[in-house]
Specification:
mainly alpha
């Protein structure tokens, strides 16, 4: 697991450091990459939400692993929301581009809430962990309401 996290962190660092490569990426590629990151966020957050809601049995090992993945993933999708992707087919609402400051604040809030989950997991208090998972869920819902087209 540590190898996967290290590889993800190095990949993210490389991606952030290669601004010129991003500038050359095709808009449809950027959209696919951000969608992939968000799909993985859902994959790792979903079971934790189920545990927090009592729908799944609580498993501290799964929470710890999924939190580590979510922490890395929480930083990955955002560079794929460039103005060049505005007209590329996706479920992103125009507000993500027209109100970029609000969209950036939503991104920062998400990353902050995930960081709080990391701290809660490190503290080991199940009630605090479940509460923070709930806070992340609300954060996701708020962002989707403002910036994501409904199904």
């Amino acid at each position: 697991m540590k190898h996967v996290l290290i590889a993800a962190a190095l990949g993210a660092a490389t991606l952030f450091a290669s601004g010129t490569a991003l500038a050359q990426a095709k808009p449809d590629t950027l959209v696919k990459q951000r969608q992939a990151a968000m799909t993985l966020q859902g994959k790792y957050f979903g079971p934790m939400a189920g545990m927090a809601q009592g729908k799944l049995p609580y498993n501290a090992d799964t929470i710890k692993r999924n939190t580590a993945f979510l922490d890395a993933l929480s930083k990955m999708a955002w560079d794929g929301f460039t103005p060049a992707t505005r007209d590329t087919k996706s479920r992103t609402l125009p507000a993500a581009y027209s109100d970029a400051a609000k969209f950036k604040a939503a991104q920062d809030s998400f990353q902050s809430e995930v960081s709080k989950l990391v701290a809660a997991v490190n503290g080991g208090d199940e009630a605090a962990i479940k509460a923070q998972i709930g806070a992340i869920g609300k954060n996701c819902g708020s962002c989707h309401e403002s910036f994501r087209e409904k199904n």
